[in-house]
Structures are given as structure tokens and as C-alpha cells.
Specification:
- With about 180 residues, the chain is an alpha+beta fold.
- Helix content is about 20%, strand content about 30%.
- The chain has a single domain, classed as Aminopeptidase.
- Strands 1, 2, 3, 4, 5, 6, 7, 8 and 9 form a nine-stranded mixed sheet that branches.
- Helix 1 runs antiparallel to helix 2.
């Protein structure tokens, strides 16, 4: 399986929307509007073009991941971070490590760009295999109710979140 990972281009937007819709169509904890979130994030200050990454298999787009700017606020102190939302793979290609490849590539690019951590809400059995841990371990909270076991983060640089606690501040685009 020869997968090409690359930055998303404008010409990919329609296909990426389709991939996201298909990937979340049957997810129980989804409102099936993740593709609209990606559209809003692309036109926000939180968007980082290099961190909107697609997976191509034999010239066909089969997956996408997006990391966008967020921060962790503790009083007046803001610590920059990234949100992973969403990672999507066409159903016919799920279970073939494409999502994992996208996550690892996004981590690599984010680290290269100087980002030190990533926060997400995701499946408690999937993300820990990539090094994600509960946000509660770090005293970091989300600004809305979500099951603790699904709120996770990863430090891209060792001890990046040492002494950091507070509440995640998402871009307005996350709220529709």
C-alpha cells in the first residue's frame, strides 16, 4: 500500500468534505457536521495550511486530518496548543493504518512548526496508542461537558505542559 501524505490544496476541498461526511456518517457520537467545522476552520485565524493533511492512495484521496490553533488559559496566562479535529478516513479504507499515518505525520509537521502539544476529544481506545493521555492528568479542562476518558492530549516536546493547567480556548469556528 503506497500512501502519499501531503498538505491539502484548495482543489481537494470538495473531496475532503466527502471523506469527512462518509467517515462520520455512522458515528454514534457525531452530529454529522464535521465537514462544516472544517470549512469554518479553514477561514479562521486558527487555520494552519501545513496542518491540513490528506492521504492519497493510488492518486485517490482517502483520508484527511486537521490540526488548528487553540490555547490553554489559566487566568491571564495563555499557552499555545493545537486541536486535532477531525481525522477522517473513507470507510472502505478504515482499519488499514491510514488514520495512524495521518496522526503521526500531523505530529511531525506540528513539531517542526514549533508546536508543543495537541488536544482532542476522541475514542479512549484509539488515541492512547499514539501517546495521548487524559487531559485531567495535567489539570487541563475543556470549556464544555465531555466524558473525561475522551478528553486527551499529547506533548510533542517532553515536559511541554509542565506547570500548565487551565481551560482550553477553542477558535470561535468550533462553535458554529
Amino acid at each position: 500500500m503506497d500512501i502519499l501524505l501531503r498538505s491539502e490544496k484548495r482543489s481537494d476541498y470538495t473531496k475532503v468534505a466527502f471523506i469527512i461526511e462518509e467517515a462520520f456518517k455512522t458515528e454514534a457520537y457525531s452530529d454529522q457536521t464535521e465537514h462544516l467545522l472544517v470549512e469554518r476552520l479553514r477561514s479562521s485565524d486558527a487555520f494552519i495550511p501545513e496542518l491540513s493533511i490528506v492521504a492519497e492512495l493510488n492518486g485517490e484521496l482517502v483520508g484527511h486530518i486537521l490540526l488548528t490553533k487553540i490555547s490553554i488559559q489559566d487566568g491571564e496566562k495563555l499557552t499555545p496548543s493545537l486541536a486535532l479535529a477531525p481525522v477522517s478516513v473513507l470507510p472502505d479504507h478504515q482499519g488499514k493504518s491510514i488514520g495512524g499515518l495521518l496522526i503521526k505525520e500531523a505530529h511531525k509537521v506540528a513539531k517542526y512548526l514549533g508546536y508543543q502539544s495537541v488536544i482532542l476529544i476522541g475514542h479512549e481506545d484509539y488515541y492512547p496508542r499514539f501517546g495521548y493521555e487524559p487531559t485531567s492528568k495535567y489539570g487541563i479542562r475543556l470549556p464544555f461537558e465531555a466524558p473525561e476518558k475522551n478528553c486527551m492530549l499529547i506533548e510533542l516536546k517532553e515536559n511541554a505542559l509542565k506547570g500548565v493547567s487551565g481551560t482550553v480556548v477553542y477558535a470561535k469556528a468550533f462553535y458554529g
